[in-house]
Write a structure and sequence with these properties.
By secondary structure, the chain is α/β, with parallel strands linked by helices. Helices cover about 25% and strands about 25% of the residues. It is built from 7 helices and 17 strands. Helix 2 crosses helix 3 (about 110-120) and helix 4 (about 155-165) runs parallel beside helix 5. The longest helix has 18 residues, at about 80-95. The protein is globular.
């Protein structure tokens, strides 16, 4: 079969190398919100940047299935900061048609995190949860250590993770955690790295984990861990200037970004999106793109992975009853 190109000659129909992605997630990290629209370093407004991100996403017609925020959501763990975070993120998520996946960081407070973001009773226990994104399993691991900035996973957490991973998910699993299991290219960051990473490696190896999402570093980077790709999203508040000497750090109000995560049948793609876009040079609309592809006879193959929703059973209903929201009296700060 052929189609006629704009030049007048016949173009053969060509199938694109890859089908459309099976899943699309947004990955944001390190929002570091403060109460009363407070500013970091006396000049950085993290709430303003976060609002701009969602304004831009909505204007672009972006439709992710889930928004994953990998920790350090409130700079001081304040209840009012978490409430402001919800006011920004949750309405935007509803308009985008996405579920929200919250993950703990070292700046977060476990009890307040639970109370405000999940409507549950406060607890100092790790906040580890499992989410079903149309057959793609997302597991959040709490690597925070109360009172410290380095990360760790307890034996109990690792046993729980191993039990969850014992049964593969229909479309595989993505782990989301704050401290990345990667080397630190800034020497000072070794003080706040994820410790005993080999213990996590033993659980991840041979499982259906397809990607690991993390934050903490305040710059975008990637690597592999236990044979699994690791993608670190830069911060939305402020970032690390990597042009400084390797043994030092230099925070900057610039280069803020977030990631688009596209999950295909045989790969996971991570794309960095800067918050402050450069000067527009030209525009090709979605309609123009579709017309150009049609002119050249390009079609996309059908994905063999059909998004599915896991069937709820009695165990699901029991867990929902046990973890249902609890009405709490207002908490003063």
């Amino acid at each position: 079969m052929t189609t006629r190109g704009g030049s007048g000659h016949a173009e053969p129909v060509r199938t694109a190398e890859h089908a459309r992605p099976d899943h699309f997630l947004l990955h944001l990290s390190d929002t570091h919100l403060l109460s009363d629209q407070g500013k970091l370093y006396g000049s950085v407004s993290p709430d303003v940047t976060l609002k701009r991100i969602f304004t831009d996403l909505e204007a672009a017609g972006t439709r992710p299935e889930a928004i994953v925020l990998t920790g350090d959501l409130a700079d001081l763990g304040q209840a009012s900061a978490y409430r402001e975070l919800k006011r920004i993120v949750e309405p935007a998520a509803r308009r985008l048609g996405a579920q929200v996946i919250w993950c703990m960081g070292n700046h977060d407070d476990r009890a307040t995190f639970r109370q405000v973001l999940f409507g549950q009773a406060g607890s100092a226990k790790p906040v580890d949860r499992v989410y079903d994104v149309h057959g793609l399993r997302v597991i959040t691991l709490d690597t925070s250590v109360p009172g410290f900035h380095w990360g760790s996973l307890s034996g109990r957490q690792l046993d729980w993770l191993a039990e969850e991973l014992a049964e593969p998910a229909p479309h595989g699993t993505i782990l989301a955690l704050h401290h990345p299991p990667l080397p630190c290219i800034q020497d000072l960051a070794v003080l706040v790295e994820l410790r005993e990473q080999h213990e996590l490696r033993e659980v991840v190896e041979g499982s259906d984990v397809r990607a690991i999402l993390a934050g903490h570093l305040h710059f975008s980077t990637s690597g592999t861990f236990a044979g699994v790709p690791v993608s670190v999203a830069s911060a939305t508040c402020y970032t690390q200037d990597l042009t400084t000497e390797a043994r030092g750090t230099r925070p900057q109000d610039g280069a803020q970004s977030y990631n688009l995560v596209h999950v295909y049948e045989d790969m996971v793609l991570h794309s960095v999106v800067p918050v402050a876009a450069g000067r527009t040079l030209s525009v090709t609309s979605a309609a123009d793109s579709a017309a150009a592809l049609a002119e050249h006879g390009v079609v996309f193959p059908e994905s063999s992975t059909v998004p599915t929703k896991r069937r709820r059973d009695a165990v699901d209903r029991e867990l929902e009853a046990m973890t249902s929201p609890i009405t709490l009296p207002p908490r003063s700060e």
